[in-house]
TrEMBL record:
Name used for this protein in its record: glycine dehydrogenase (aminomethyl-transferring)
E.C. no: 1.4.4.2
Purpose: The glycine cleavage system catalyzes the degradation of glycine. The P protein binds the alpha-amino group of glycine through its pyridoxal phosphate cofactor; CO(2) is released and the remaining methylamine moiety is then transferred to the lipoamide cofactor of the H protein.
Catalytic activity: N(6)-[(R)-lipoyl]-L-lysyl-[glycine-cleavage complex H protein] + glycine + H(+) = N(6)-[(R)-S(8)-aminomethyldihydrolipoyl]-L-lysyl-[glycine-cleavage complex H protein] + CO2
Gene (UniProt): gcvPB
Length: 514
């Protein structure tokens, strides 16, 4: 084995699986530490803080007194610190390595954004503070709106929705408000087969029937089928562009025209905006409403359910229905318009206050530090990275569609045919290589989908290492080494979990053993 100058091996040490087969005495395996729940480590007689003995006082407030233990775990401080440090090391994140999860845009989050978000004038303010004391924060919202309107080419934006799915809800509610205002009760929303699950879910949540539009062989919306489904019952069409197969809907103008000719609205799912920032403006493509995922396109650590921010941009046809509150200029400076007056057709309020201030700061910091040229370059580099992966892997894996892709490369499982290895197995084996797996089994329109989104923030070195690992795994699968896949992950604290059970019956509450 060759060693580097510090005496460390330069290549992975061969293990045959045997060396990890023995049980350790501690439950730990090397640096993969077993970690119980903090409640399981609890010792009643221990505390990490010195609390003074309390004197005599009446333990009952309003006749209510605690008769059981409070239930907080008792641990010395070093054990608390170790517990959370160990937990944090079990977490895979973009700061650990590439996170090629398609449709999620897991990019590097510049630390500058964090520094800005922690400025006391942004980080320590409260939504109920007098408006005169938060003028800077309102100005930031105003400036962010300006950048969003410039980048999307639209006349209005609602900042308050707190995620992409929430933005979809906001957009479809505006569409419903506009239709109601013209006394037009339409009941159907059309979604392409490849749509993200949140699109039909939003439509159904707003009381619409969902009708599916098929895709063509080239992975784009079948525009003839779309036209045939358009009639005076259709309220809106929801299309993602670039779509969830990583392809640009090149007939998007024609789609918009057909939708408008039928008196319907064009909702665009803008979660994939990272591919086209500075290159194409949704306003020019005929879009009536589109959410942006600030936490995808404009950075911010995300995943595991938060935090997010999903501002929605609107066309002239919908801009009167934007939700409250929004920033307005008055003679005394900036203020939030909190209440609708008689003439205001606003849909009302979607969130308690004004939305995710921390996200606004991070997004604006990202935009301003990149500048318009930098944002455009980020999109170009994201598309280049994805195409580099597509071009480097398509001789051994099966690309689902011909031609170049946008910001993500879609493969399916035809290359695994007769190997006994499934998409799931393949993804689990990637964990043993130190990678977060790509998105699997989505979009549903291709069999055993593998959707890889490298983003612009992976260097060529990182992409090359990823490609080498993927090619290595493909070779292993094709050479019949099924065990490497079916038992994977071998090098993770947990092996295969029952993910269906975990999703359907999550255990969210700790119950002490009797
Ligand atoms: C991420 C995503 C959404 C949902 O956004 P959230 O912020 O997770 O609610 C919707 N559509 C597409 C295509 C997405 O990738």
């Amino acid at each position: 084995m060759s060693m580097n100058t510090q005496g460390r091996p330069t290549a992975a040490v061969e293990t045959d699986g045997q060396s990890t087969a023995f049980e350790s005495f501690s439950g730990h395996r090397g640096l993969r530490l077993a970690e119980p729940l903090i409640f399981e480590m609890d010792r009643e007689d221990t505390t990490g803080v010195d609390v003074e003995e309390v004197g005599d006082f009446d333990l009952e407030i309003a006749g209510l007194g605690r008769d059981s233990k409070i239930g907080c775990p008792g641990l010395p401080e070093p054990d608390v610190v170790r517990h959370y440090t160990r937990l944090s090391r079990k977490n895979y994140g973009i700061d650990m390595g590439p996170f090629p999860l398609g449709s999620c845009t897991m990019k590097h989050n510049p630390r500058l954004n964090e520094k800005m978000a922690r400025l006391p004038g942004f980080g320590d303010i409260h939504p109920l503070q007098p408006i005169s004391t938060v003028q800077g924060a309102l100005e930031l919202m105003e400036t962010l709106s300006h950048w969003i309107l410039e980048l999307t080419g639209t006349p209005a934006v609602a900042l308050s929705p707190k995620a992409g799915a929430h933005g979809e809800l906001c957009g479809v509610m505006a569409i419903r408000a506009a239709l109601e205002a013209r006394g037009d009760a339409r009941e159907v929303i059309l979604c392409p087969e490849s749509a993200h699950g949140t699109n039909p879910a939003t439509a159904a949540f707003c009381g619409y029937k969902v009708k599916s539009i098929p895709a063509k062989d080239n992975g784009r919306v079948d525009i003839e089928a779309l036209k045939q489904s358009l009639d005076d019952t259709v309220a809106a069409v929801m299309v993602t562009n670039p779509n969830t197969c990583g392809l640009f809907e090149d007939e998007v103008r024609e789609i918009a025209d057909a939708v408008h000719a039928a008196g319907a609205f064009f909702y665009c799912d803008g979660a994939n905006f990272n591919a086209i920032v500075g290159k194409a403006r949704p306003g020019d493509l005929g879009v009536d409403a589109m959410h942006l995922n600030l936490h995808k396109t404009f950075s911010t650590p995300h995943g595991g359910g938060g935090p997010g921010s999903g501002p929605v941009v609107f066309s002239d046809a919908l801009k009167d229905y934007v939700p409250l509150p929004y920033v307005v200029k008055t003679a005394d400076g900036l203020t939030l318009k909190e209440h609708a007056d008689d003439k205001d057709p606003s849909m009302g309020r979607l969130v308690a206050f004004h939305g995710q201030m921390g996200m606004y700061v991070r997004a604006l910091s990202y935009m301003m530090s990149h500048g318009s040229d930098g944002l455009k370059q980020a999109s170009e580099d994201a598309v280049l990275s994805a195409n580099y992966i597509l071009a480097s892997l398509q001789d051994v894996m099966t690309a689902s569609y011909e031609g170049p892709c946008m910001h993500e490369a879609l493969f399916d499982d035809r290359f695994l045919k007769d190997t006994g290895v499934t998409t799931l197995d393949f993804a689990k084996a990637m964990i043993d290589e130190g990678y977060h797996p790509m998105t699997m089994y989505f979009p549903l329109v291709v069999h055993g989908a593998m959707l890889i989104e490298p983003t612009e923030s992976e260097s060529k070195n990182n992409l090359d290492q990823f490609i080498r690992s993927m090619r290595g795994l493909v070779e292993e699968a094709k050479s019949g080494n099924v065990a490497r896949f079916s038992g994977a992950p071998y090098f993770a604290p947990m092996g295969r979990l029952d993910e269906t059970q975990a999703a359907r019956k999550p255990v969210l509450k700790y119950e002490a053993a009797e």
